[in-house]
Amino acid sequence: AALGSLSAKSRLGEYYLGFGYSMADGDGGFQKASGDILSIMAESPASNTADWRLGLEYGNYDMGPGQGDDTSWRLGIDYLMYYDGHVDQNGMFRPYFGLGLGYLSDKVGIRLDDNGFNWNFLVGTEMLFTDDLSLYLGGSFYGLWGSFGENDWEWDVGLTWWINDVHGISLDYQRPAGIKMDFIGLKYLYSWQ
User: How many CB atoms lie within 10 A of CB 89?
Assistant: First the structure.
């Protein structure tokens, strides 16, 4: 297959369910913190150039000796708009941006220091290397509705391999700018398109 062909399998513009597990590891002020996170997500095309994404994430965090364990969860929906075939390389690069709303319950302060309804802005690109292999690079600027000063930026990188048209796996890495935690995860993707 030609590099970056338009028939390449992408995470944008596809119907799929994702099931994931991530490990969190802290540094800096969170040196002794660690966590386990389970996630489920669904993505569905809204048009030829936009998708809806719904996600639920639940994490259990050990904050270190004497700090105890606590939980964090978030539920969100995003609207992603992407540009396919409008840039060089015949669609190899698929830039996207989006908006989202959600709810965050973060007792441990891993994502933000408070709980409540939140907003986010997403930006990035997916690079299609072959029909089965892609890499996305992006980020999300997010915060609380009740306090716009309570916000953060999170980097997001993922390598996706589609085993066939239905089954895929993704190795992901996230890093918030304000909180010194690394999130490394593995997702199983099920696509029925």
Answer: 12
| Whole-number Å distance between alpha carbons of 178 and 28 | 11
CB-count burial class (<10 Å; 0-12, 13-18, 19+) for 11? buried
Phi and psi, residue 133, nearest 5°: -125, 130
Name the residue among 76, 69, 123, 132 with its Cα closest to residue 100.
Answer: 76
The first and second tokens of residue 21, run together, are: 């597990």
In b/e form, how buried is each residue of 97-130, taking b as 16+ CB within 10 angstroms? ebebebebebebebbbeebeebbbebebbbebee
Local structure of 28: helix, strand or coil? helix
Give per-residue pLDDT as tens, 123-167.
999 998 888 999 999 999 999 988 877 888 999 999 999 999 899
**Tell me: the pLDDT tens digits for 61-111?**
887 777 778 888 999 999 999 987 654 555 578 899 999 999 999 877 777
d(CA 132, CA 113): 39
Residue 84: count of CB within 10 angstroms of its CB: 19
**What does the alpha-carbon distance between residue 110 and residue 49 come to, in Å, rounded to a whole number?**
33
Helix (H, G, I), strand (E, B) or coil at 18: strand
In this structure, which amino acid lies at residue 8? A
